[in-house]
Structure formats: C-alpha cells, structure tokens
Amino acid sequence: MRPVTHCGILELLARTVISNQVGGNMSSKAAASIVGMMAIALYSGLGMAAADPYQLNLPEPQTIIARQIYDQHTMLLWICLAIFIGVFGVMFYSVLKHRKSVGYKAANFHHSTTVEIIWTIIPFFILVGMAFPATKTIIAMKDTSSPDITIKTTGYQWKWGYDYLTGEGEGISFLSNLATPRAQIENASPKEENYLLEVDNPVVVPVGKKVRIIITANDVLHAWWVPALGVKQDAIPGYIRDAWFTIDKPGTYRGQCAELCGKDHGFMPIVVEAVEPEKYTQWVAEQKSKSAAAVVDVSKEFTMDELKAEGEKVYAANCVACHQANGKGIPGTFAALDGSKVATGPKAGHIDIVMNGKTGTAMAAFKHLSDVQIAAVVTYERNAWGNAAGDVVQPSEINEFRK
Amino acid sequence: MSQGSHYYVPAPSTWPITGSVALLFMGFGAAFSVNKMPLGYGLLAFGFAVLIYMLFGWFGTVARESESGKFNQQVDKSFRWGMSWFIFSEVMFFAAFFGALYYMRIYSVPELGDLEHKSLWPDFTGDWPTAGPGITEKFMPMGPWGLPAINTVLLLTSGVTVTWAHWALKLNKRGQLKLGLFLTFALGFLFVGLQAYEYGHAYSDLNLKMSSGAYGATFFMLTGFHGFHVTLGSIMLFVIYCRVLKGHFTPENHFGFEGVAWYWHFVDVVWLGLFIFVYWLI
Amino acid sequence: MAAVHDHDVAHAHDHHPSGMMRWMMTTNHKDIGTMYLWFSFIMFLTGGVMALTIRAELFQPGLQIVNPEFFNQLTTMHGLIMIFGAIMPAFVGFANWQIPMMIGAPDMAFARMNNWSFWLLPPAALLLLSSFFVPGGAPAGGWTIYPPLSVQMGMGMDMAIFAIHIMGASSIMGSINIITTILNMRAPGMTLMKMPMFVWTWLITAYLLVLVMPVLAGAVTMLLTDRNFGTNFFNAAGGGDPVMFQHIFWFFGHPEVYIMILPAFGIVSEVIPTFARKPLFGYSSMVYATASIAILSCIVWAHHMFTAGMPVTGQLFFMYATMLIAVPTGVKVFNWTATMWRGSMTFETPMLFAIGFIFLFTLGGFSGVICAVVPIDIQVQDTYYVIAHFHYVLVSGALFGIFSGAYYWLPKWTGHMYDETLGKVHFWLTMIFFNLTFFVQHFLGLAGMPRRIPDYALQFADFNMISSIGAFGFGLSQLLFLYVVLKCIRGGAKAPAKTWEGGKTLEWTLPSPAPYHSFETPPVVR
Ligand code: HEA
Ligand code: HEA
Ligand code: CUA
Ligand SMILES: [Cu+2]
User: For FRET with B273, which of A222, A267, A347, B127 sits at 20 to 30 Å CA-CA?
Assistant: First the structure.
C-alpha cells in the first residue's frame, strides 16, 4: 500500500533519471543526453512492472501480438524523434541565428519545387515503412481461427459476464464484479495495492493455449481491454465481435472497460489469471462441482424468507448500482423501487420489466439470470424497504413466463 | 434593373434576432414536448409563430429591396452562390439518411443474420425488408407501383411545369408564367396530400410504422423528410406565385424565382433516389 | 465600384441603433466578429471551469468532489462547449473581422444573415447549458454521444440535440457566407492565387463545414427519433447498429477536427512571414496541401473506430488513408520552417505563439500518426494517450493559433498596442503549464489509464497530480490574457496603420483601428 497523498514530482524526476540509467540501454541514454529533458526519449525501452507509478511505456507484453505492438511503438517513437530533431534543429538554428536583433538581413526566396517535392516524397516512404509491419500485425490480430478454448464475455452495466463455450471448461459461467470495497472509493479506508483493479471472479485461462474471446454486450457499449495481452475490443449490444490471445507466462493481468458506459464505467475492471494447464484443469473441476451443487429444481417451492435472503444477494450483485441499496434509486436518472407502482402492483408487470427491461432506458433485460435468481430478486423487491406486497414469486412462475 | 454598381449592404435589422428568439423557444419547446413536460407544446407553438412572422418579415424585406432595384449583378451572383451551397448542404443531409439505409441493407441486417450471430439471434435470416431480429410484430413493405408511382409522375410533371413557367417568365409571357407556377405548386400540394394518405394506409393496412425496425425507420424518415421538403418547396412556390401576381420579377432579373426552381428540382431528384432505393429495390 | 450602406433607409426611421440594440441588429462584419470572439472567450472560460473541475476530481484517486454521473456530464459538456462554443466561433470571429479586410471587400456577402449566424449561438448555448438543471442532468455520454448510452440519457440529451441543430444551422449559414464572400467579393486584381493564406484556409474550411455539418444534423436527428419516436437506427433488435452512429458521426467528426485546425494554419501562415520579414515559402504548395488535407479528411473517419471491430480491409484502408495526411501536413511544417530560414526574425507575442504552435502541434501530429497505426491504437484507443494527442492539436494547435492571431490583429482591431511584456509572460506561462498538464498524459495512456473515468488505480496517482497542477496553472494564465485584452481595448500606445514592419496583407493599409466600413472603394491589387 502506497500513501497516495505525497507530492511525487521531485521523486519522479529523480526516478526517471535513475531508471533511465539502470533500465535504459545505451542508445536511449545517448538520445536522452541529446535532447536533454525531452521525455519522449525516456519512454523507449523501459519495460517496467505493471504497478509502477512512474511507468512511462506500455506494460510489459505477455502475448505475441502485444510484443509486436510494443516494438512497433518503440520504432515509431524513434522515427518521430529523428524527424523532430531534424525539423526543430533547423528551426531553432534559424531562430538563434536569423534574428533581426543580431543584425541578420532577410533573404527573399519563396519557393523551390525540387525541395518541396523531396519533402513530400520522403515522409511518404517513411510512412510506408511504418505501415508495413503494422499490416502484418493486423492480419495476425484478426485471425481468430482454431482456438483451443472459446470464452464469451458480455458487458453489463457495470460488470462482465463470462461463459466458457468450447474447449476445456465448457459450460462454466459466472459474473465478474468489482471487488474493491466502497469504503476505499469514498476515501473512508486506505486504498489497497490493486485499488479498482480487483474482481470477485477473475477469468482463468491456461497458458500456451489459444483463447478466442467472443465479445458482446447486454445494454450499452463496453470494451474488453487487457493491455498486457494486446486485446481491446468494443462490446456491442446485439452484435458479436471476437479477439484472441495466447499467454506465455502464468500471472495476473489486469485491465478495464474502455468504452464509456455510464455512471460506473470507471468501476468495471477485468482480471485475467493465466495458470499452468494442470492448475487450469483443477480449477475447471472445482467450478463444475460448485455449479453442480448450485443447481436447483425449478419446480421446487421456496419460502418467503429463503427467497428474500437469496434475493438480497442477487439485488446486491445486479441491481444496486442503479436502484441503490435503499431502493430509492437516483432521482431523475434511476427509478426508485421503494414505493414504485411496478414493484407493488401486479406480479406480471414486475417480472416483465426485470426479464425484458425497458427499451430506451437504462433498465436492461435480465433474462440471463436463472429462474431462481429472478424469482428471488422480484420477491425481495416486493417485500423490502417500505414495500409490502406480501406475495411470493416462485421459480416455476419465471420458468412459465419464459415460454 | 440595378442601381449602378454598388454592393448592397443592408442596414441594421431586427429580423435575425427575432429568428433567434423563435429558435430559442422552439428548442426548449421541442425538448420539453418530446419529454412530455408541461409547457412544451406552448413554447413550441409560440416559437413557431415567431419564426413564421420572422420569415414573412425577412423575405418581405428582401423582396422589397429587390423590387426597388438595390441589388446589382454582384449581389445577384452572391445569391446564386448562396443558394447553390444551401442546396448542397441539403443534399448532404439526405446523404446521411441514404447512408443509413445503405448501411443497414448492406452491412448490419445481413450481419445480424450471419452464422456468427446465430447465438444471439437464432431465427433471423437477414433478408430485406425486415423489422430486425428482435421485433416480432409483422408488417408489409410499401410496394412501388401504386401511389408511389403516381407520386413520381406528379413530381416529374411539376418539374416540367416549373421549367415551362421559367421560359414564360424569360419571354415575358405572364399568363403562361402564372399558369405554370400554379400547376407546379398545386402538384406539389397534391403530392403531399397523397403522401399523407399513403402514411395512413401504411399504419392502418400494412402495420408499417416508425417502429417497424430498420425498414420502418428508414422508410418514414426518408420519405418524411422528403415530404417536409416538398411542403416547404410548395409553400415557397406559392409565395413566388403571389409575388408574380403582384407583378414582381422581370425577364432579366428574377433570382427569387430561380432559387425556388432550383430547390424544386433538388426535391425532385431526391424523390427519384427514394423511389428507386426505398420503394422499388426491395 | 463602391459599397452603398443602406443609410438612406436607416436614416428615415431609426437612426443608428445604439447600446444593446446596436449589437443585436448589426449587419457590420466587425461588430459581428467582435461578438463571435467574446462569445467564444466566455465559452472557453465555461468549458475551462468544467475542465478544472474534472482535473480537481482527478487530483487524487478516490471520489472527492463530484459523483460519477456528474463527472460524465462535465466531460461531455467540456468537450461540446470547447469545440462548438469556443474554438469554432473564435475562428468564425476571425473570419468575420479579417476576410473582408484581407480581400478588400466592403463587408460580408450576406450581412444580415451574418448577424443571424451569430445570434443563433447564444440560444444554442443557453439550451445546452441549461441541460444541467433539468431532471437527469446534462448529457453524459461523451461529446461523441454514442448510442445506446445516449438513448438512455434523460431530457438533457434532447436539449443537446436541439442545441446541435441550431449550432449546425449557424455554422452552415456562416460558411455559405464566407464562401460567397471569398468567391464573389474580392477586390479587382485579387485572383484566387493571390489571396492571403488565411483566406484560403477559411475557404477550404467553409467547404468542409457545408459538407459535414448537415451529416451531423442527420446523425443527431436519428438519435432523436430513436430516443423519442420508436425508430431503431441504432438498435440491433430492429436491424440497426450502434456502430452505424459512429460511422455517421465520424464522417462529420473527423473533418470537424480539421475545421478546427485549418484556420489556425492560416493564421500561422500570416504571422510567420510577417515576423520573419520574408514571403511565405511555397505559397502554392501550401494551398494544395491545405486542399489535400481537407479531401483526405473525408476518407479517414473510421480511425476513431479501430476497436469497434471492422474487417481487416477496412482497418487497412483507414490506417493507410490516415497516415497519408501526415504528408501534406508535413509540407506545411517544412514550409513554415523554410519561411523562417534566413529571415530577419523578431519575436513578438504573435510570433512566439506561432512558433509554439508549430512545435507542439507537430508533437500532437506525431501522436496522431501513432494512433493511426492500428495495432498501437488497439492499446491507446480511449485512453489518456488520445486525450494527450488531441489536446496537443486542439489546445496548443487551435487555441495557440487563436492567441497568435488575437495578438497579431489586436492593434488593428482596437487601435492600441497590447502590453508586449505581459503578452510574452502569457505565452511562457501558457507554454509551460500546457506541457505540464498534457505531456504526462501520454504516459498515463500508455500505462493503461482509460479516459472518461472519475477515479483511477493507484499507479496513476502521481502523473494525475502533476497534470492537475498544470491545469490550474494553465487556467489561471488565461486570466492574464483577458487582462491584456481589456487593457489593450481601454488604451495603450497608438498603433500605426501598418503595425508590423513585415505586414503585407491589405488590412495593414487601413488605419488602426480599422474604420467601421473597411473598403468603401475597393483597393486594386496588382
Ligand atoms: C485539431 C484537431 C486535430 C488534428 C489536427 C488531428 C490530427 C491527426 N489526428 Fe487526431 N484527434 C483529434 C483531433 C485532431 N487530430 C481529436 C479531438 C480526437 C479524439 C476524438 C475523441 O475520441 O473524442 C482525435 C483522435 C485521433 C485518432 C483516434 C484515436 C482513438 O480514439 O483511438 C487518430 C487515429 O488515427 C488520430 C489521428 C490523427 C492524425 C494521423 C492526424 C494528422 O493530421 C497529424 C498530421 C501531422 C503530423 C504528422 C506532424 C507534422 C508532419 C511532419 C513533420 C511530417 C513528417 C511526419 C511523419 C512522416 C510521421 N486522431
Ligand atoms: C476544443 C478544445 C479543448 C480545449 C481548449 C480543452 C481544454 C482543456 N481540457 Fe479538454 N477536452 C476536449 C477539448 C478541449 N479541451 C474534448 C473534445 C474532450 C473529450 C470529451 C469527451 O471525452 O467526450 C476533452 C477532455 C478532457 C479531459 C478528459 C476527461 C475525461 O476523459 O474524463 C481532460 C482531463 O484532463 C481535459 C482537460 C482539459 C484542460 C485542463 C484544458 C485547459 O486547456 C482548460 C484551461 C482552463 C481554463 C481556460 C479555465 C479558465 C478559468 C479560470 C481560471 C477560472 C475563472 C473563474 C471564473 C470564470 C469564475 N479535457
Ligand atoms: Cu463498461 Cu465502460
Ligand atoms: Cu480523426
């Protein structure tokens, strides 16, 4: 845990100089001394640990694509630096020498076709040089064929859902929520190391296997982004997009939603845990046995208390971001459920809005929840806070409703 | 015609600021009324009334300036540039909607029906016309050979009559000018009337609505904005007609007429695009 | 040939309107230019205060000052206000003041419509800003208002949509006016290829505006009907596509960014030759480069959508096209350098801002090219790297251009010299704080900080703190600019007609301050 209040400018300066000498190679040292304070040069060739507060460059790449991106970025930086020094070398020479105050008399030339053609053509070829490796990477990036494992991820406001579709682990399915406690966000307790970058259920994948990730969304646009894997892809409601990665080393790789998706856009991180294949097999087995235990017969009758208890959990995981723990919502933006006509009126209307959402509002469809979960959360809402509908919704009713 | 070689710079005027007040009210009025807030329609109607008042006042002033010979050749040329670029901007506005139609037909609808998307929309085939994979309500598309074909004939004829009126104006045959203009805006209003009838037919018989997915949205927005432009054009033609009755315009100097005629031809061409891409090729 | 002003008519009933009425009714290009400039400055402060609130929230990790909903509203409104309220109107203000003077015209071609173009802006701004006070608050979907998020918003979104309609109408009328003025009102002898660069850049900008503003109007209209009238343009269930909005929006949006930079290129192309006392190098290639940039800008829009998922061919096409823009832009940078080469330079404030412009804009251009390379954009899209890129081209590009032009022409507008010392102080403070604010954002973006977030991981804390400190310094420095301008309006050394030794364009033949009616008798240009 790092104190976050200290002013780090001095430390920053010291650190960049030191790390440049320690971490930088010869060429970056040389360049740095040419351009002095030009920090552009500093951030080439310094791969640093993910949580370094003075990280100047892309995070250390963990996949082949991310590695290529990293190298191309470095190459482009050097090219730009060279052009920059060329152009501004000339300009600042001129600024220093060709000034009136040193008595310099203006020349009167005003064009030269040859020179102009030269400086049109040279940049063109430089650009071709930049585009060539990029083209190869793009084609590789888009090749999502023959994966070992396919995982579907769905963006929700504001969490990610994962379904393992094919390959080892098929059938596993869970939601992944921000795990950082509210108190830390509201500055009521000290922030921990992975502040805002922790989730309750990380995506677990084996190293060395090609993982294809299918990306979609339930409500608005989101984007699934893990920098170290070189993957960023928008999640588009109603459409499917995909990407792939093969991770080299075991480790925990963190990312965030990268497309504005409303209020809690800043609070829907992604955590990918890459493990050795054996450990992965073990993890799959655990998940399977957990979900087997959780399967319940939809025709089972539950008591009000059971449903309310389960419903409170479902509510906390899915609904609380908008409707708030006290059921009061956020006036003008998110409807209050406490005292709402829908939540105290006929059951059918209540079930309908939860299952199908309401188009044109932030209320998305929650069909993807299980029958038990929906029954529980509806029952909870009808009997929590000031609501006292007094009725119970059974999973069987939801099952019926689905048909 | 013109009063020598001066470029006319108008005196300070209250019309623009009146127009701004109108749009201020209309902006708030529209935002309130689409959100079903109190006052919405009132503000909108008030703003609209002010706008109409401003348009009459402003164009009336310009007409008077023109008739009193304040505009020289150079001013006339400015008007020509101005009108051309205005029409160009209108073309781009329609281009956005045609682009949307094209995009849905070529990209999004087929994509939603492809193999990859079976997991989200299992039964969708991606054929046009469609209301999309998630809207189950059925509708019938609008066929081209009934009313739309008649409307095409009407608009094309009106293109001819307006050109006839123009020739008459140039040859100073005022009788033919009046008749040609009258026929033009009469055809225009008839077109609008038939279009309204067609909408009624769509809603009541075909179950085709704004909310009928991709087809409904593009159908109503394209034909709707076009119909709106025809209405505007017809009103403009009517105003020109009134000015002709008052004896305005000379064979040499009649940009007001020409500008409206250009606009009318533009509306005509857009219709042809609509007829082909919205009605015919489905 | 001379201009007749409709005085006889005006004399008849109300004499010269005075006070507030003068400004509301004016048909004079200079009055209107002045109003545009003040409007834009007020909007700049408004958008700036929002930026400072954003920076204050981002000073430290954790939520301190605003809640996330309001933060998103601030981000969105900051972007909209700065683009549509500050930068664009400022350039139209320059166009109004300078174009008639620079081409030897009596006024703008459509003087009365000119007034309307301006007076549409305050109602639009009012509509946009009052969205903060309606239920649900201001739009919070980013200035790009992507659906479906923007379909979810409350009525503030509808207000923004109508505001955009009105601003669009204003822009279109303004551009038609400018095109017509330039094409039809030039003094005898001023052929197109003798026009000052500033006039050229505005001609091309105005074309772009007429081309793309209606498309934006179409996009927001579809959004409006999706929100309120049940259409499904951007809803997959109805066969629509959220990504379609992005295509239409960026068909407008990308040319829009050049709309905000081309006039700045024009200003810099006036300032550099003046203070280098040497003609602009490669005038005709500058004209062609500007035109090429404008044409290319219409076929690169999808570089904002590299992560939206496109076929490989699409990505390659838009990557290549985007990178190509570096070529004509490079021509401009090299030509400016060549203009300075072997000149006899002095460094008054306009020149300082012009050099600052070239220096920092080029940096922003480089980060643009880096964004244009698809694999790299995959990493930096929607991060602070992009924020850094576009503040380098917008603030140290467009805004520096505006400052440069303002100092350059202030003596002509007011008849007084501005305070040179304070001007230079303003420049250096602006320069230093600007870099402090935005340079570190490159690092943040590369290291993985997404944009449009109110709170961030601890690893980003220090750079954010630096950036926030810089932002406040930058903001305060702008108050100095306000002071310099006010001081210059109220008095100061009398400015000669030809304020700058190297000034060659027509406005320097007019007395300072320029007379109310610039060229009643057009000058003859040889
Ligand atoms: C004034 C505004 C302006 C200007 C001029 C530019 C100029 C450029 N922009 Fe920028 N851009 C924006 C404003 C602007 N941009 C904004 C506002 C956004 C974000 C919008 C949002 O999402 O909110 C954005 C985003 C943006 C993106 C999307 C990033 C993302 O969201 O992922 C991309 C990607 O290609 C891009 C590229 C470019 C390029 C290639 C140029 C080129 O024109 C730059 C050309 C200039 C040079 C290259 C320097 C000079 C040239 C030389 C010295 C010659 C030699 C050089 C070489 C051979 C390299 N811009
Ligand atoms: C067009 C020009 C433009 C300009 C000039 C600026 C200027 C500034 N911008 Fe802006 N910015 C954008 C265009 C612009 N921006 C756009 C398009 C976006 C994207 C929005 C989106 O994501 O949708 C953006 C986003 C953006 C972000 C990212 C927000 C996010 O993603 O969450 C940040 C964060 O630092 C930022 C900061 C700043 C700062 C510090 C300035 C400074 O230059 C501002 C300087 C400050 C002042 C001028 C204030 C002066 C006033 C005072 C000192 C107080 C006076 C007091 C009273 C009047 C009472 N901007
Ligand atoms: Cu989900 Cu941003
Ligand atoms: Cu762009």
Answer: B127
Residues B226 and B179 in one domain: yes
Q: Please work out whether the CB of residue C474 comes within 6 Å of at least one atom of ligand 2.
A: yes
The question of whether C130 is a catalytic residue gets the answer no
Domain C-terminal end among B47, B71, B95: B71
Put simply, the answer to whether B116 touches A240 (Cβ < 8 Å) is: yes
Clarify whether residues B104 and B244 are in a common domain.
yes
* Ligand 4 centroid to residue C326 C-alpha, Å: 12
Final residue belonging to a domain, choices B13, B41, B71: B71
Query: What percentage of chain B reaches a pLDDT higher than 70?
Result: 98
Chains with ≥3 CB–CB distances under 8 Å to B: A, C
Strands A251-256 and A269-275 come out as: antiparallel
Residues B225 and B135 in one domain: yes
Residue B156 belongs to what domain range?
A: 72-280
pTM: 0.92
If residue A402 lies in a helix (H) or strand (E), which one and from where to where?
helix A395-402
Look at the alpha carbons of C23, C24, C29, C33 in this order and tell me if their dihedral is positive or negative.
Answer: positive
Question: Which residue stretches of C104-154 are H helix?
Answer: 111-119, 121-129, 149-152
Say if residue B125 is in the same domain as residue B261.
yes
User: What DSSP line would sit under C429-498, residue for residue?
Assistant: HHHHHHHHHHHHHHHHHHHTPBSS-SS--GGGHHHHHHHHHHHHHHHHHHHHHHHHHHHHHH--SBPPSS
CA distance C128 to C163: 6
- In this structure, which residue's CA is closest to atom 20 in ligand 2? C79
Q: Which residues of C touch B210 (CB under 8 A)?
A: 225, 229-231
Q: For a pocket test of ligand 2, which of C52, C385, C387, C481 has the largest count of ligand atoms closer than 8 A to its C-beta?
A: C387
Does residue B128 sit in the same domain as residue B48? no
Question: Are residues B203 and B101 part of one domain?
Answer: yes
A217, closest residue in chain B (CA to CA) = B120
Residues B87 and B53 in one domain: no
Cβ atoms of C249 and C219 closer than 8 Å: yes
Q: Say whether B111 and A239 touch across the interface (CB within 8 A).
A: yes
A127 within ligand 1 shell (Cβ under 6 A): yes
> Does C451 participate in catalysis according to the annotation?
yes
B119 touches chain A (CB under 8 A): yes
Domain count, chain B: 2
C34 in active site = no
Nearest Cβ partner of B86 from C5, C176, C218? Answer: C176
Cα(B164)–Cα(C503) distance, rounded to whole angstroms?
55
Tens digit of each residue's pLDDT, chain A (403 residues) = 333 333 344 344 444 444 443 333 434 444 433 333 334 333 333 433 446 777 888 889 999 999 999 999 999 999 999 999 999 999 999 999 999 988 888 888 888 899 999 999 999 999 999 999 999 999 999 999 899 999 999 999 889 999 999 999 898 989 899 999 888 999 888 888 899 999 999 999 999 999 999 999 999 999 999 999 999 999 999 999 999 999 999 999 999 999 999 999 999 999 999 999 999 999 999 988 887 777 666 777 888 888 888 888 889 888 888 888 888 888 877 888 888 888 888 888 888 888 888 877 888 888 888 888 888 899 998 888 888 878 888 888 888 887 7
* CATH code (residue B55): 1.10.287.70
Nearest ligand, CA C251: 4
Q: Strand A149-156: give its sheet, edge to edge.
A: A173-176, A159-166, A149-156, A211-217, A241-245
Give the CATH number of the domain where residue B223 resides: 1.20.120.80
The answer on B132 and B40 residing in a single domain is: no
Chain C residues whose beta carbon lies within 8 Å of the beta carbon of residue B135: 232, 237-238
Q: Does residue B3 register a pLDDT over 80?
A: no
For the CA of C377, the nearest ligand: 1
Residue A11 confidence (pLDDT): 43
ipTM: 0.91
Q: Count the neighbouring beta carbons within 10 Å of the beta carbon of residue C502.
A: 22
